[in-house]
Protein 1
Amino acid sequence: MARRKALFEGKAKIIYEGTEPGTFIQYFKDDATAFNAEKHEVIAGKGVLNNRISAHLMTKLESIGVPTHFIRSLNMREQLIREVEIIPVELTIRNIAAGSICKRLGIKEGTVLPQPIVEFYYKKDELGDPMVNENHIVALGWADPYELEEMVGQAFRVNDYLNGLFAGIGLRLVDFKLEFGRLYGEYGEVYIMLADEVSPDNCRLWDDATGEKLDKDRFRFDLGNLVEGYQEIAKRLGLIPETGIIEGGNINEQLAAGLDEIENELAKQRRLRAISKGTPKNPRGTSGTSA
Ligand code: AIR
């Protein structure tokens, strides 16, 4: 098969030209990185599982009215997405203290936070994704206040929905990181869309009964086999058979390929919703000076 043109390669994914205008193809690699890529390993099957999990969760989120860049799955490792302009802000919501907040504020890991905490990080690898606040984001022009409000609103919707979804399969959603993108409409309106991926690479998920960590912390802190954790999440979501798709460190290609058939029905029902930026000063493109 002729290879499409790669437009951008990140730590865990590659973005290729799409099959139609306004689309990209998002390819999930098996690479795992942590601590700003100081730690790196290739883990067979990780890309397949994240592609599958993210496709499923994005479809579910779309169905409750969270606009996402996800269009449909193409194969084991690839999905068709809308071409959006990524906003360079990583938004994190925490329900339970873990990871950097414990270090930064001296909170004991596992402490249930009295209310979810939202944090922002500037998406800049060279700087190690530093934490920032709304003033940095608006003043430095990464997002305007309307966009920011929309991102935070959508992130809380995602949190509410995913908390319930994971609770139903015996998992606690400790925290997660989201990225958003802009899609420009025909009339210059802006749609804010959930982008990137929603997977155990950027969510912390603990088993409710045992406290076992099933997410990327397994890799970050050598807590156990990474794909076994991701497989467990995929199994509970009903996305892969009980027997799993990794055998002896290798992915069972046949089984994995059979998973391509996903619920694209919901994707067809998706609707776009423009964010309101107040009354335009110049609604019809006529002269701005009043009569
Ligand atoms: N995250 C942040 N940057 C990259 C990722 N994947 C996610 C982590 C965790 C949450 O954001 O996976 O779910 C908070 O991370 P931390 O390190 O700030 O505690």
Note: The pocket of 5-aminoimidazole ribonucleotide is lined by residues 90, 92, 99-101, 175-177, 201-204, 216 (CB under 6 Å).
Protein 2
Amino acid sequence: TGKFTYDPGFLSTAACQSKITYIDGDKGELLYRGYPIEQLATKCDFLETCYLILNGELPNETQRKDFVGRVTQHTMVHEQMQFFLRGFRRDAHPMAILTGLVGAMSAFYHDSTDINNPTHREISAIRLIAKMPTLVAMAYKYTIGQPFVYPRNDLSYSANFMRMMFAVPAEEYKVNEVLVRALDRIFILHADHEQNASTSTVRLCGSSGTNPFAAIAAGVACLWGPAHGGANEACLNMLEDLQAQGGVAKVGEFMEQVKDKNSGVRLMGFGHRVYKNFDPRAKLMQETCKEVLAELGLENDPLFKLAMALEKIALEDDYFVSRKLYPNVDYYSGIVQRALGIPTALFTGIFALARTVGWIAQWNEMLSDPEYKIGRPRQLFSGYAARDVKPIAQR
Ligand code: CMC
């Protein structure tokens, strides 16, 4: 391949050094800053995890309080954002709205635009983590035609988000701690995943020195695609379609389709590019799924039963076993989100909200690296050699 290594899809190119997230796909291991995801998901909340991802260490009590205080101070968005939002059609996809809103934040915060100043970078990180829930909830309320709900800073990060999503005027909104904890866990499990497509997008975009909100908007745009953040939406659609066609009774027939290479049908929520043993996030999500369905009295939820039936067959079937295909995080997160009342079209927005901390931490790490350069992939040129422009009459 001449001067350059040709590596489509970057299957074997490391574009950066990073100390943030470690994945061992064969062992099914995921560590944020050295801490196993299982421990973070059961012993910490999302904001502690954000602090860890951003700063490299878990906070002590004083640091935790200070961080929570700084995040809550920034949960409001500028009132003018509402006018911008109202310019969208009501039936716009929430990810279209979110890409626009996050990009628009770059037009509001002119006091922290020096990307070479660590204090400016930090304030942008806090603003993004604080405002994402407000923006996602606003995008949702707008598409269903309900009034926006302003943030309440006496509530936890996840409880405040649930309230902004589901509270309606003149009715008291009661926070359900089991559901809040489930949502918080979804956020923890999606907070970072090293150099995936959207994170690499944020790094590449940010490497030109662009405004941080613009770089994160690029990450949101990348995440939107069905091969990335859109998979949980696809998984839930698959379960709903199968349910409509007869549910558990049709599982065998459906599996035959999945195994038929010519059908083009995949078992969504199964398989992973990196995890070839199991996805540790899927195990945690399955537990959460059971807790949420029990709390809501939905143990007999037909979609959950269907998911369990499909999983059982797949885990015993040679097609899946021989290809090392196991459930990934999205297999269960869609069912949990649906039970929480989150509409399918918003699943990727929830993922974006959670991944924002990972994006901004990776962006910050890149800018702090003395070896950092603008990203500029090379190409293998396969077009014409030099040729002459002919007069238009001869073309
Ligand atoms: N259902 C049926 N067969 C599958 C599936 C599936 N879900 N996934 C992979 N295979 C087969 C595939 O046909 C191939 O078979 P063969 O070797 O006979 O040609 C083999 O398994 C390897 O698949 P691949 O597509 O080469 O593997 P990959 O590493 O390129 O793809 C994947 C990984 C996640 C894109 C793929 O497993 C998939 O499409 N899964 C369904 C979509 C999904 O759930 N995506 C969410 C990923 S997790 C979210 C995140 O971490 O961001």
Note: Residues 193, 228, 231, 258, 266-273, 323, 325, 328-330 surround carboxymethyl coenzyme *A (CB under 6 Å).
